[in-house]
Amino acid sequence: MNNYYTLKSLVAELRYEIFNKEVREVWSSRKDQIDFYFSSEKTGKLTFVAASPGTALYLDRRAAVPSRNAAFLFPEMQGHTVSGIEMPSAADRYVRVTFSETDLELLFKPFSSRPNVFLIRSGRITGSFKKDAGHAGERAPSIISAAATVAEADELTEIDISLPLKKKIIGIDKRFPRGLINDVADTCNLEAASMPELKEKVEILQQKLLHPQVVSITAEGNLSLLPPEFLSHPPERTFDSVNEGVRTLSLTKNREKRLLPRKKDIERKIGKRISGLQKQLEQFRKEPERLKKADTLEHFGHLLMSQPQSNEQAGDESVTIPDWAEEGRERVIPVTKGETLIDQARRYYEKAARIRKEIAMSGHKKEQLTSQKCEMEELLADLSAIEHPADLEKWIKNNEARLQQAGLAPSGSQPVARPYRLVPLGDYEVWIGKSAKSNDEILSLSHKEDIWMHVRGASGSHVILRNRGNTGWPDPQLVLKVASYAAAYSRQSGSSMVPVIVAKRKHVRKPKGAAPGQVTVTNERVEMVIPQKPEIPDS
Fold first, then answer.
1. What is the 3 state secondary structure string of 413-464?
2. What is the 3-state secondary structure (H, E, C) of 184-212?
3. Can you give the pTM of this predicted structure?
4. What is the dihedral of CA 503, 509, 510, 514, to 10 degrees?
5. Which whole-number Å values give the CA distances from 219 to 136, 200, 413, in the listed order?
6. Whether 503 contacts 525, CB under 8 Å
């Protein structure tokens, strides 16, 4: 969902789908995603992905409510029926959803470096998906009137014909999709067009964008509302609706974001292993040269042993001996000064024997290396074909022993790779940081409704009590028990009573440029506990 035209057509489709539908509940099961579930199972859920880049708004028929690790949001919306959805302004590109018999509104802000969705009542923000407490009570974002937007669009401006084509097209239509300019430049021959011709062609393209017949994902990974013949390469996929195109592209991008780093890490390791095996196999190509060298070394030994003074010490670093195998031609043989020629000959014999033994044993080693290389190439081929994170997890599990045996365990695939100590506690999990760096990692991995703890006034591990997405607090005795863990993993572990800071994760912030493990906390409380270390199954 990367431009005005996509959003405009999407809103028109959503209006037909969600009008007069009742909102059942609102959940967030991922860091940057909020889902609005409707009572009608056929309608599904309205999903908003508030990640930049990658913002998306779409209707998803897969409407299973999350069973764990999700936050329940906007309870005020339960039971309200959608009365409308619109783009009040083309300039701001907000999307507004209104409801029957209430002054509540939803305002989606997709085009921003900080995308968000606001819950508004009587012109004031009562809640928001991102930075919830920070926006409450603020005035709702001001929206440019539709009349002003039309006036701006109709305003004629003189365009410098010497400008690059991209700037000229944007000068004609500021909302034209940037990702499609190169395509239409080729297919419509826009570079050669005069300014009047260019304006005429852009107007034709505008009409195509406003009334899409086919929606597609381009070879570059952009969403296009233009017919395929206007694209410079055949599209990757086509769709009958804008919503399906937006949904598919968003899920694909999210999947790649989760899949690619881990997949590339394993591919790099396997590729490096294959390269190493190939270098070892290339050494076997030198076997004829090594056999020839062994013959030469053995011949040196024969020549040294054939000398009448072979039991005398060498007085120089080489000796010159007539070679009876080459009609008496003199041969210069390197020796070690101070050693007898017999000792020198024995050393040459040993070297020749060692080379021949290595070559004799190399057949089995060559078979082993070839087998290992084939196995690694098969693993790499299977890995390259994987397109879904779940399939990657399954592949790693199935090939875990083979990867470990080859020293290729993927990053994060083993328990030791976790940046925290994991402590099961009934139906809950507790994460305990291992170092200042891992303290930062578990902070970023945790959910905003989790419970964060740290000893007060001393260094120690960050401790996270996973709250399963609940907006409330766990049982007080459970919180005290986990606080005792934070006390035990601190510099005050030897004290009889230790103060521990307790706060929701959403009130813990990592200042820009702060040292590893350093955070600021608000809305905290302090509990006095006796330090107690937990039993950790896989520490």
1. CCHHHCCEEEEEECCEEEEEECCHHHHHHHHHHCCCCCEEEEECCCCECCEE
2. HHHHCCCCCCCHHHHHHHHHHHHHHHHCC
3. 0.54
4. -90
5. 42, 27, 33
6. yes
User: Is 263 exposed, middle or buried, given 0-12, 13-18 or 19+ CB atoms closer than 10 A?
Assistant: buried
Q: Confidence band (pLDDT; 50, 70, 90) for 415?
A: very low
At 279-293, the pLDDT tens digits run: 888 888 888 888 999
* Spatial distance between the Cα atoms of 431 and 462, rounded to a whole number of angstroms: 8
Q: Is the dihedral of CA 431, 434, 436, 440 positive or negative?
A: negative
Question: How many whole angstroms separate alpha carbon 222 and alpha carbon 464?
Answer: 39
pLDDT band at 205 (very low <50, low <70, confident <90, very high): very high
- CA nearest 24: which of 40, 11, 13, 8? 40
Residue 500 makes CB contacts below 8 A (sequence gap 6+) with 453, 454, 455, 456, 483, 484, 486, 487, 526, 527, 528, 529
β-pairing, 82-86 vs 104-109, is: unpaired
Contact 535, 481 (CB under 8 A): no
Predicted local distance difference test score (pLDDT) of residue 1: 60
CA distance 446 to 450: 7
Alpha carbons within 13 angstroms on the beta-carbon side of residue 12 total 11
- Specify the 3-state DSSP secondary structure of 479: helix
Write out 273-332 in H/E/C secondary structure.
Answer: HHHHHHHHHHHHHHHHHHHHHHHHHHHHHHHHHCCCCCCCECCCCEEEEEEHHHCCEEEE
DSSP 370: H
Sign of CA dihedral 144, 146, 147, 150: positive
Per-residue pLDDT of 179-201, as tens digits, reads 899 999 999 999 989 999 999 99
Tokens representing 404 are 């470990």
- CA torsion sign for 396, 398, 404, 408 is negative
Contact by Cβ (8 Å): 331, 359: no
E-strand ranges in 50-177 read 56-60, 71-73, 82-86, 95-99, 104-109, 116-121, 124-128
Phi-psi region of 54 (alpha: psi -120 to 50; beta: other; left: phi over 0): left
